[in-house]
Sequence to fold (498 residues):
Amino acid sequence: MAQSTLDSMPGASTGTVVVTEPLNFWGGKRVKPRQEKNAEPVFEPATGRVLCQMVPCGAEEVDEAIQSAYAAYQKWSKMAGMERARVMLEAARIIRERREKIAKLEVINNGKSIIEALVDIDIAWQSIEYYAGLAGTLAGQHIQLPGGAFAYTRREPLGVCVGIGAWNYPFQIASWKSAPALACGNAMVYKPSPMTPVTAVILAEIYKEAGVPDGLFCVVQGGAETGSLLCHHPKVAKVSFTGSVPTGKKVMEMSAKSVKQVTLELGGKSPLIIFKDCELENAVKGALMANFLTQGEVCCNGTRVFVQREIMPQFLEEVVKRTKAIPVGDPLLESTRMGALISKPQLEKVLGFVSQAKKEGARVLCGGDPFVPSDPKLKGGYFMSPCVLDNCRDDMTCVKEEIFGPVMSVLANNTTFGLASGLHTDCFSLDISRAHRVAENLEAGTCFINNYNISPVEVPFGGYKMSGFGRENGQVTIEYYSQLKTVVVEMGDVESLF
Ligand SMILES: NC(=O)c1ccc[n+]([C@@H]2O[C@H](COP(=O)([O-])OP(=O)(O)OC[C@H]3O[C@@H](n4cnc5c(N)ncnc54)[C@H](O)[C@@H]3O)[C@@H](O)[C@H]2O)c1
Ligand SMILES: C[N+](C)(C)CCCC=O
Fold:
């Protein structure tokens, strides 16, 4: 049942888990791949060991999953919002109950520290709980018209929605997409990243256990080809995508062919502005939170840190001291604050950005090297020491491109991205207006004032410019998973012009 892979979690430690259960899920159960010939190994980032095999779904499997989702949609969409809410609240409760086991499995597949994974799982059940709360509130409007005629609007689901996720927040992304989709009466077929295939299917099992109709939340495994099959399928009404800008553009292009709605949650290169009147200790902590969560593999990270000249020396001294003290190592240890990057190629890419930054004139104040923990079982892991670069200029590669690793570039504005931004200043003095003036002028979907990377589920999250469109979280997301029908009712005779 729902606890299959999770059953082995309590005693599990880094380097011990192998996942052999099928990772697809439709029709209310795990489904074995039809043929194993295209299997790809999935690695445990902390050890470099093979964790499981990911077998991509082909056209027939994708179609089967979508048909199963469509059948479930016919039942689920006819239920009252409050009935859907009860099932979703039960799913949230089960996730909360199993948070430690799910978080452990997430760490083993993703490499992030357990302390962060626990927060990710909490945000996941909170998201389901939040949208369960909204499910019963979905309503239309009544509009009085002349002569007793009237119109009313109905907020209706879209149908089968597709979710395509990235590898940095595997369980959380699946929850952020499925929670509003299900609350509105849709079904969802979800494709996780091929690098993190193991926890989305746990979510599917939990939804099933909570009482959704079989097929309502399906998981198909695969990479670009499977993703493309989903985007082209005629029975799919919407695609919600989280990933890179180049893939997001392709998803939009494919979806446009059959006018599917699209939400794009893409990359970023967000600025964090530190003013001289800030509370320095908080600004330093904010900069670390803005750069080093999940080994720096976070879309909204504030990786371009602009510091007012007068406080630059103190800021750098404190940031470097704290960065050097970050415990890097076994991600399942509670004391670890930075785990392993997702893959060897990702580690090499990030180290390459550091070398390029040096060539272009940046100064490495700390880190930026491969890191080999003393524990022998971690020798093959994808670790690096967190890095702070200064002497950075707007035209440097490290300042323009998304690195997606633990590298902070310190400098001062011009980017095609617009996901997030942040600033640290004194909001309690007479100059209270500055924070809000700057927030208004930053071209980004989010501006964090005096903190960074906090994302309560009630608050909308999403990008401006090349960072995408549509939103996740908050009440507004209901609009991205539903459509408005207008019903116009005549109460008298038809006045025809003909
Ligand atoms: N804005 C956000 O909320 C957010 C959150 C997490 C990650 N991201 C971004 O994601 C990127 C890193 O994740 P990634 O490397 O997994 O991104 P990616 O674009 O390589 O892959 C994302 C997903 O798209 C799938 N995919 C790849 N090619 C496809 C195609 N042709 N058609 C359909 N699907 C396809 C992948 O299999 C994966 O599931 C970064 O740029 C990061 O900023 C954004
Ligand atoms: C929960 N965070 C930290 C805001 C990350 C959201 C997903 C982006 O990669």
